[in-house]
Specification:
Distance between the termini: 47 Å
Low-confidence stretches: 155-160, 163-171, 319-326
Strand order of the largest sheet: 1-2-3
Helix content: 55-70%
Largest sheet: 3 strands, mixed
Number of helices: 10
Number of domains: 2
Length: 326
């Protein structure tokens, strides 16, 4: 075979991972904003004695680190997109960034809960007016961060049609989702800190301040677990969405001569999937024929098709096997 023609059967495995994602620039902006507010809140929490405010500042510190990991994941995936050592490109770096961010969320939620319990047992005096002012300032900053990342994240809830789903490819940008949950958690802890400080100041319920730290830790943990589940499913090559698998089977089996006997569908990046399909047919066609049948499905970027011929004897043996209940 002429090696000069090999390119006709070869293709790139970058799958658009070499392109800069919208979430990257927005995440960098949020890191700068969050980092500045983090320093202010930690200092104010220590000076004014507010556990809710200190917890919010420590929470923002964790998120600054986590958001930095998210940005690193974006840059790493883009800069190594053409590295042939990655069999299916660098798309899973996105999920790994989200998974790492979720773990950090859980760790810092536990730290928040531990510190809050300590403050319930050993309460300290709080400079309410100063702490409330800083907490309100933190809420404004966090709200701006949620808005910045939310412009991308909000589009996740669009039309479920396969083509629409493909057009909004950031729907499964777990790296962006991780960053969004981090800043959303920051906004939540700021709200809880303000509520706790106001309650403690005007009603004398000092224990409300650390209690809100515990409530915030519980809510953040729940968000983290959801993100861990979705990202771990990708990292462990869990079967892809049922609607895509059904679309593949329906496209091939619309001809009664064809039967899909084995189908593997897994994610290799944000809203991009690989598939291995085994087809049994009385009148088998070349693999390219079956690839053409499923080509309208936009989420598929790498498809392997196995074709097997089914003769009458094999069919009768199969029917006898099934009817015998073996």
């Amino acid at each position: 075979m002429n090696n000069d023609n090999l390119h006709l059967w070869q293709h790139s495995h970058t799958f658009r991972q070499d392109q800069k994602r919208p979430g990257e620039r927005r995440t960098v902006m949020v890191i700068i904003i969050t980092g500045v507010m983090m320093i202010v809140e930690i200092a104010a929490g220590m000076i004014f004695g507010s556990m809710a405010l200190l917890a919010d500042g420590l929470h923002m510190a964790s998120h600054t680190v986590a958001l930095s990991i998210n940005v690193f994941a974006y840059i790493y995936a883009r800069s190594h997109a053409n590295d042939t050592r990655f069999s299916f490109g660098t798309g899973k770096v996105n999920a790994m960034g989200g998974f790492t961010g979720a773990i950090l969320l859980v760790i810092f939620a536990l730290v928040m809960a531990w510190e809050s319990v300590g403050r319930i047992i050993y309460p300290i005096n709080i400079a309410f007016n100063q702490a409330i002012f800083v907490a309100v300032l933190g809420l404004i900053v966090n709200g701006a961060s949620v808005f910045i990342l939310g412009q991308e994240h909000s589009q996740e809830h669009g039309n479920e049609d396969l083509h629409e789903h493909h057009q909004h490819s950031h729907h499964h940008d777990h790296n962006l989702r991780s960053a969004y949950l981090h800043v959303l958690a920051d906004a939540l802890t700021s709200v809880l800190a303000i509520f706790a400080l106001l309650t403690a100041k005007y009603l004398g319920l000092i224990w409300m301040d650390p209690l809100m730290g515990i409530v915030g830790a519980i809510l953040v943990s729940r968000w983290s677990i959801g993100l861990l589940r979705s990202t771990s499913a990708i990292l462990l090559d869990k079967q892809g969405p049922e609607k895509i698998r059904t679309a593949i089977k329906d496209s091939i089996e619309k001809n009664d001569n064809n039967l899909v006997t084995d189908l593997h569908l897994w994610s290799i990046g944000p809203n991009i999937y690989c598939a291995i399909v085994s087809v049994v047919s009385y009148d088998p066609m070349p693999p390219e024929y079956y690839k053409a049948l499923i080509s309208p499905i936009p989420c598929l970027v790498h498809v392997t098709v196995e074709v097997h011929k089914c003769n009458n004897k094999e069919e009768s043996d199969r029917e006898e096997f099934v009817s015998s209940g073996k």
